[in-house]
Structures are given as structure tokens and as C-alpha cells.
Amino acid sequence: MPPSAPPSAGPSARALLRHPAAGPLAVLAAGAAGSAHVYVTDPHEPGHLLPRCPFRLVTGLLCPACGGTRMAYDLMHGHLTQAWLDNRALLLAAPFALAMLGRWMAEGLRGRRWQPRVGPRGQLLILALAVTWTVVRNLV
User: Fold this and answer.
1) Cα→Cα distances 64→69, 82, 95, 115, 119, Å
2) Model's pTM, two decimal places?
3) Which end of the chain is more exposed for a tag (fewer CB within 10 A), N or C?
């Protein structure tokens, strides 16, 4: 009797990884895991296992994202004023980032690939805002 092929268990792992929802689901899972760690780890206190900003380590200056981890911690604990003081620019940008993640997720679950389109003017605007925020926060 010839050996028979094992029954198929469904879609292959490769096919699942290529599904349009795989990327946003992976980002969501990583974000949830990171958020859970930050929720129980106060970044305002020394001695924690959170990465330090390489830009600040090298230059001594605050980068546009410095304070983002502290901001996320404060938001998760309901400290809105402190989150605002940690990083105003990221706090204002967070709803847009969450909206893009939501759109990416929704399109992926519908089986469609999606990525935001930012034209050259939009890219220059984002760069100008980031540079301006970096300069302003290091002068004040």
C-alpha cells in the first residue's frame, strides 16, 4: 500500500503570514505586549528594563520622541496633564497614529493591503514639525 499524504491542516503558515491582516495584527500584538510592560513599569523611576533614547545618550539633547514612554505610562494611568508635559507633540499625533493603525487593521481584515500615502509636501511638513519640536523643546 503506498504511503498517503497527511491530511491538510488548513492554510500554510506562509500563506497566513502573507495575509494582509498579518502585519497589523503583529503590530497590535507587539503594542499590547509593550503597553502591558510599560503599564507595570514606571519609566519615571530609575532601574527599569526600558530602552534609553540613543539620540539623547549621544547628544544629550531631547529627540522629538523623548518622553514618549513616560507619556504612554501617564496616559494609561489617567495622568493627562503629566502626559502633556512629557511630550506634547506625540500626544497630539497619537490619535492620527491610532486612526492609521485602525484603518490598516480594517483593510487587512477585509483582505486588502493598505498603506498611508504621504506626498512630498506632507513628508516635508512632518520633517519640519519634528525639527521645530526638537529645537523648541531643547531651548526651553
Assistant:
1) 12, 17, 17, 23, 21
2) 0.81
3) N
